[in-house]
Amino acid sequence: MDLFIILVICLSCLILLSLWNRSYAKGKLPPGPTPLPIFGNILQLNTKNISKSIRMLSKDYGPVLTVYFGMKPTVVLHGYEAIKEALIDQGEVFSGRGSFPVAEKITQGFGVVFSNGERWKQIRRFSLMVLRNMGMGKKTIEDRIQEEALCLVEALKKTNVLSPSNSECIPVQEACLFIFIYLAYNQCLINDKDQCLVNELMMDSSFFQLYNAFPFLRVLPGSHNVLFKNYALQRSFILEKVKEHQESLDINNPRDFIDYFLIRMEKEKHNKESEFTMENLVATIWDMFSAGTETTSTTMRYGLFLLLKHPEISAKVREEIDHVVGKNRSVCMQDRSRMPYTDAVVHEIQRYIDLVPTSVPHAVTQDIRFREYLIPKGTTILTDLTSVLYDDKEFPNPEKFDPGHFLDESGNFKKSDYFMAFSAGKRICAGEGLARMELFLILTTILQNFTLKPLVDPKDIDTTPVHKGFGTIPPFYELCFIPV
């Protein structure tokens, strides 16, 4: 036993020495808490609220610091100035995708969200082009979203107005599945039950944090194996849909993203350097579906919850809708410029809920001197978006839900560079325009047709976010939709 203890101590010392040597051999990394052998700093962090831990650490180590998730160093950026300097001022260097073992196991580095280098550039550029071709930000997509919003209204009207709706069963996710039209015409690509399981597991802090810090845990039983098995089933289903598209493809009349991608694959089939492969097609579809539905529907559910807490805000939005739009037509995007208060409410919902507090990890694409530090190529970068969205100088009293954060003294909408709900720089969410449109149109359509009634006194509603892993979700709640 004594020999075993000695071996453990020696091994621990060697690991610590290796960590320190790595830091100084490759560059002077920013300061940070001393990592423990093997575990790094993970035992010192609140895995249910990483951003809170970062805020505390930044008080001791400054806005640029280093933490170890396991044995790998991660440079953390805290505050607007540091994040802007990295993601915007030096955006190309900080445009890499950081280490993310859960996603890497699933996508194998393919797709648009978790890919790197030339692959990422080609697939992202192509995806944005297809979005534009299909009318992102134009009337065609707007019409489709309006149709989905009206379907949501009809579904809600069919429910008994005296019966409460479970927040997890409000059909906002179905209204946000407009991404189907973009990806695969009118076909459902992924089973709703399966997708809910994926979203639940991806938000689960316990397995998520541990697996990312210690990827070798994949050999052990656990919920991560459920996620991987589920993805395998989804991948098979997507491949079936792609095969159907191949059989009915008309190169002169592409219907959706799959068609556009298949046409590009055919054009580049003799190019060995082409990134337009079946692997990238399947991974990109999964990326966009996963990112494009859950984030928007969660934001919507949380937004409704906040409006339950603040009926005076909900009433003011409805008053603006009545004044600008009335009851006889649907809200359109042209109305937004004449609805500054409603626009401010939508922005404040996104700011307040802080959906992805630390965003998806970035990485530096080359050795770089950042401030007084030298960060080696490939180092993972974590951006604390909470520190920007909750900056008390830009948003006074940031813990309070207040649309005034986005209004000037005259009541006009006020833009803010600190609004980084979709991240910033080269890796900003590719579907930002679509998400903004969905949130504005669906929320206003609901409030145009319903009064939101809570089951408890609004004063007793606690809107404190539920933190799980890298995502934020609203607490469970119930409400009634009363037709107006």
UniProtKB/TrEMBL annotation:
Keywords for the protein's UniProt record, in alphabetical order: Endoplasmic reticulum, Heme, Iron, Membrane, Metal-binding, Microsome, Monooxygenase, Oxidoreductase, Signal
Membrane topology: Peripheral membrane protein
Primary location recorded for the protein, binned into one broad class: endoplasmic reticulum
Transmembrane segments: none
Stretch forming the signal peptide: 1-25
Localization: Endoplasmic reticulum membrane; Microsome membrane
InterPro entries: Cyt_P450, Cyt_P450_CS, Cyt_P450_E_grp-I, Cyt_P450_sf, Cytochrome_P450_fam2
Chain sites annotated for binding heme: 429
GO-annotated molecular function: heme binding; iron ion binding; oxidoreductase activity, acting on paired donors, with incorporation or reduction of molecular oxygen, reduced flavin or flavoprotein as one donor, and incorporation of one atom of oxygen
GO cellular component: endoplasmic reticulum membrane
Cofactor: heme
GO BP annotations, alphabetical order: monocarboxylic acid metabolic process; terpenoid metabolic process; xenobiotic metabolic process
Pfam families: p450
Family membership: Belongs to the cytochrome P450 family.
Name of the protein this chain belongs to: Cytochrome P450 2C3-like
UniProt source species: Theropithecus gelada
Gene: LOC112631566
